[in-house]
Write a structure and sequence with these properties.
Length: 454
């Protein structure tokens, strides 16, 4: 039985901790069942953003007449779009594996790891032990228990990122991040999409104003059915039919393809964590303390499998803390402030509390809001609906949250994030007092800050 200083299960953000430990001279085992690089690189944020760029170009062409241009989208070569993504993703994953195998302090085990005791793991019949273990095995698409679903072909995000032929029509079950991003991609390229959302709003975890606006805008452009309960799924000739219930009415929708975008399930159930005595919550997410250590000493967990924040950038941050806590005196992870973005149209980004959360916590707050259309650059872009919304503590002036919907929202948000990081009670004044380029989109952020009436 081979013994290691550290075993890392998962080669996404977990790889950061593995490589960092190896650089400090530790003997490290990396266990990876699939392609190196994890979900983000192979079947998540990186390939999705590469292909979504094509949808953004298509959307610009569709809007050409607004800017005095005559243009039309002549043809979509989905195979070329997907191949462009794969030509980046696959070589990068292969390069990671090559580099890991060439490192004398790293040993790669390709296969599924399962705990057989506290500090022992089995991979492909081989048993290895580690003085310390990091679980970074991520999550996978969740498949809801819908009658008939097991009898029809369906896509998850993994397959949707690799299709080579553009479907004429697609039903998407789920109106969260994945459904919104892939829905935008396929719709702008010409697929007739129908989104089925269980709640009354798309992106229901976003600030309520943001979620309400994008739901309204999408209902005008696409077929969006909210408050939709899925009754059953069945095959109808070459198409897939989904029966839904809205209130007292029932209807059927048919399409060429069915995409399941109903959230994720942690991969803890594939690891036999109970044999190591590791605790998980009722949803299967591994429980960790503020040092990212499980209830079993020297076994840590990070990333999607813990269910804290489910972003690659949060997992990268956690990997930094786990590496420190393995090598040095332990530090509690500091997530503040943790931003996120949804790369759909309109683009959405947010950080901190939503207004509904501020209300629930009974915080006395004020709102600063500004619309893109009230800035010179916003007018130039023809942006009619987008806005920046700041939620500010009335007493302390702390920015509790910021939510943006509109062009380049993910970029604009970072001005606020950096200001928040500079000082909780300084951020608002920093945004107000910093000179902004005119005319730039960032002026909408400054004006939202100036519109906060304390």
């Amino acid at each position: 039985m081979k013994s290691f200083d550290l075993i890392v299960i998962g080669s996404g953000a977990g790889l950061n901790a593995a490589v960092g430990a190896a650089e400090q001279g530790l003997k490290v085992a990396i266990i990876e069942e699939n392609a190196m690089g994890g979900t983000c690189l192979n079947r998540g944020c990186v390939p999705s953003k590469i292909i979504i760029n094509s949808a953004e170009v298509a959307e610009t062409i569709h809007r050409a007449s607004e800017f005095g241009l005559v243009a039309s989208l002549q043809k979509v070569n989905l195979k070329q779009i997907i191949n462009r993504s794969n030509s980046v993703i696959d070589p990068e994953s292969e390069s990671i594996e090559k580099n890991v195998r060439s490192d004398g302090n790293l040993t790669l085990f390709k296969g599924r790891g399962r705990f057989i005791s506290k500090y022992a793991v089995e991979v492909n019949g081989e048993k290895i032990t580690g003085k310390k273990i990091v679980i970074a095995a991520g999550a996978r698409p969740s498949i809801p228990a819908i009658p008939g679903l097991d009898k029809v072909p369906y896509l998850t995000s993994t397959e949707a990122l690799r299709l080579k032929t553009l479907p004429k029509s697609m039903i998407i079950i789920g109106g969260g991040y994945i459904g919104a991003e892939l829905g935008f991609f396929y719709a702008e390229l010409g697929t007739k999409i129908t989104i089925l959302q269980r709640s009354k709003l798309l992106l229901s975890r976003e600030d309520e104003e943001i979620a309400s606006l994008i739901t309204g805008l999408w209902k005008k452009k696409y077929d969006v059915l909210t408050d939709a309960e899925i009754v059953k799924v069945e095959r109808k000739g070459k198409e897939i039919s989904v029966t839904i219930k809205q209130g007292n009415s029932t209807k059927k929708i048919s399409a060429e393809k069915l995409l399941i975008a109903a959230g994720v399930t942690p991969n803890s159930d594939t690891l036999d964590i109970k044999k190591a005595g590791i605790r998980a919550n009722e949803k299967g997410f591994i429980s960790v303390d503020r040092f990212l250590e499980t209830n079993v000493k020297n076994i840590f967990a990070l990333g999607d499998i813990t269910g804290k924040y489910m972003f690659r950038h949060s997992a990268n941050l956690e990997a930094e803390y786990v590496l420190n806590n393995i090598l040095r005196e332990k530090k509690a992870v500091d997530y503040y402030p943790m931003p996120h973005a949804v790369f759909t149209s309109p683009q959405i980004a947010g950080v901190g509390l939503t207004e509904q959360e501020a209300r629930e916590q009974k915080i006395k707050y004020v709102i600063g809001r500004e619309y893109y259309r009230n800035t010179a650059k916003g007018i130039a872009l023809g942006e009619k609906h987008g806005f920046v919304k700041l939620i500010v503590d009335k007493k302390t002036k702390e920015i509790l949250g910021c939510h943006i919907i509109g062009p380049e929202a993910s970029l604009l948000l970072h001005e606020v994030v950096v200001a928040m990081k500079a000082g909780k009670n300084k951020a608002l004044d920093l945004l107000r007092d910093t000179v902004h380029v005119h005319p730039s989109l960032n002026e909408v952020v400054q004006r939202a800050a100036l519109n906060v009436q304390l």
